[in-house]
Amino acid sequence: MPTAHDPVRLAAYLHRTPAAYTMHLRAHSLTQLEHLQTRAHELPDGHRAALTQEINLRHRNPWMRDGPGME
After folding, report:
1. pLDDT by residue (tens digit) across 53-70?
2. How far apart are CA 39 and CA 41, in angstroms?
3. Separation between Cα atoms, residue 37 and residue 8, nearest integer Å
4. How far apart are CA 39 and CA 44, in angstroms?
5. Three-state DSSP class for 22?
6. Contact yes or no for 4/10 (Cβ under 8 A)
7. DSSP per residue over 28-58, as a string?
8. Which residues contact 16 (CB under 8 A, 6 or more apart)?
9. What is this structure's pTM?
10. DSSP 3-state helix, strand, coil percentages of the chain (rounded to 5)?
11. Angle, helix 45-60 to helix 18-25, in steps of 10 degrees
12. Between the CA atoms of 22, 58, 37 and 21, what dihedral angle is there, to the nearest 10 degrees?
């Protein structure tokens, strides 16, 4: 189990399926997702694909650029 000091690995551990991880990503802004992508090599393959797909979706749809409650 990852330590609590590593939020990238902890989120992947808590959201074990790529679908659950995608729902977790919806709570983050596009800026946060792009920052997370710099550490995507540490994620499992399915989670990395979900992150890339979410970023691409947000770039295609301007109304999805910011997550709920994020500025």
Report:
1. 999 999 998 787 765 555
2. 5
3. 10
4. 11
5. helix
6. yes
7. S-HHHHHHHHTTGGGS-HHHHHHHHHHHHHH
8. none
9. 0.82
10. 65, 0, 35
11. 40
12. 0
| Residue whose structure tokens are 């729902």 | 23
Q: Burial of 32 by CB count in 10 Å (0-12 exposed, 13-18 middle, 19+ buried)?
A: middle
Cβ atoms of 50 and 8 closer than 8 Å: no
54 in the Ramachandran plot: left (φ > 0), alpha (ψ -120 to 50) or beta? alpha
Question: In the structure, what pLDDT confidence band is assigned to residue 71 with cuts at 50, 70 and 90?
Answer: very low
Longest dimension (CA), the chain: 36
Residue 8 CB coordination number (10 Å): 16
In the structure encoding, which two tokens stand for residue 15, read together? Answer: 């959201």
